[in-house]
Amino acid sequence: MTDDNTHNDAIRRNPLLEAAREEMVKFERKENEFRKKDREERAAELHLPLNEIKIH
After folding, report:
1. Which end of the chain is more exposed for a tag (fewer CB within 10 A), N or C?
2. Helical spans, DSSP H, in 1-56
3. Domain that holds residue 3
4. What's the rounded Cα separation, in Å, for the pair 22 and 29?
5. Superkingdom of this entry's organism (predicted)?
6. Number of compact structural domains in the chain
7. 15-45 helix and 2-13 helix, angle to the nearest 10 degrees
8. Higher pLDDT, 43 or 49
9. Would 54 be classed as within a structural domain?
10. Whole-structure pTM value
11. Are the C-beta atoms of 12 and 18 separated by less than 8 Å?
12. 2 membership: H or E segment, kind and range
């Protein structure tokens, strides 16, 4: 496990890699928000209850 911790510490100390990681986190957050909004819009367009779908 020491090798993993050492590797993670090295990545955290590298400002360029840290900046890239932060940008990726921002991108993923925006992408998730976009997908959620898109799902809601498509459900509304098709008159589907997004949260009320039940499987019996």
Report:
1. C
2. 2-13, 15-45
3. 1-45
4. 11
5. Bacteria
6. 1
7. 90
8. 43
9. no
10. 0.56
11. yes
12. helix 2-13
The residue whose two tokens read 């459900």 is: 43
Residue 12 lies in a domain: yes
Pair 34, 41: CB distance under 8 Å = no
| Identity of the residue numbered 41 | E
DSSP class of residue 46 equals T
> Which amino acid type is present at position 13?
R
Count of CB atoms within 10 A of residue 34's CB?
10
- pLDDT band of 50, cuts 50, 70, 90: low
Residue 30 amino acid letter? K
